[in-house]
């Protein structure tokens, strides 16, 4: 048998190797053809969708419109349930606040269920109910520490050393110290100090009324072992005092610029505090450790001191002093009468280690009147 090689056609022969430039040109041509095909397909798809929409009957279109309206209504309702802004306008609050017990610039609580003023065995159950309600509306995420604090509140408060005993609510695992550095809430401290003159001028205008009567409208006299202690509240236990805010409009607007001011729960206050010469404030504890109290010195005569946890500090004009008022603390003014009163602007700020999610939950749990 003789082997004869088969003759191959021209089309079966292996094509010679092409240069890189030739291969690139071929690939580009193929890509352009694919892209043109994709555009044609996209155009056909859009045309089909438009035709399908035209073919829909009125009933289907009405159903789609109703679903869209229901979705928008749901979004609106969810938005309304979010926590309210810190400082609504004074004009909007004027009538409602006075109807709810704001008298002479001070909040008088009429509710036996108030968590800020209540001291009874059912307080923990009420706090836990408020926490559950918050978690149903929003989330349990980040609530571990608050849940732990409420569940074991009695043990925490009873076992605390006598140097620190918050009267209402103790949040566990917060750093404990009588005084805080200025950097703890640096933005708000610097903002208050930059506006020192503004706050001082509004106080001096207010204080002129003392020459006409013993206790002018808007001021509150506090109980002290000796001397006189007056306060003028802009925010008292989480509620704005509209009449007082109108008399200090620039100071009130300043509160809205503070990032960490407590304005939505019963532990938040902002006021001007005046100690006459010879005044001593009895030792006492604040209601909670979730806040730090800031004093901006407006007038600071000699021989005036604040003692927190046994550690004395002096105020300075135009400077902020930060402390934890859940520690046992007192203040006194032993300066001469001719030096006048000691005056500070006091505002409650969030403890820097309370997380944002915890702040929102605490605002809900301890909302005024809840």
UniProtKB/TrEMBL annotation:
Superkingdom of origin: Eukaryota
GO MF annotations in UniProt: dioxygenase activity
Coiled-coil blocks: none
GO cellular component, one term: membrane
Pfam families in the cross-refs: Asp_Arg_Hydrox
Membrane topology listed for this record: Single-pass type II membrane protein
Main location: membrane
Record key words, sorted: Dioxygenase, Membrane, Oxidoreductase, Signal-anchor, Transmembrane, Transmembrane helix
Compartments where found: Membrane
Keyword Transmembrane listed: yes
Keyword Transmembrane helix (UniProt): yes
Domain Aspartyl/asparaginy/proline hydroxylase: start-end pairs: 193-352
Family: Belongs to the aspartyl/asparaginyl beta-hydroxylase family.
Protein name: Aspartate beta-hydroxylase domain-containing protein 2
Classification of source organism: Eukaryota, Metazoa, Chordata, Craniata, Vertebrata
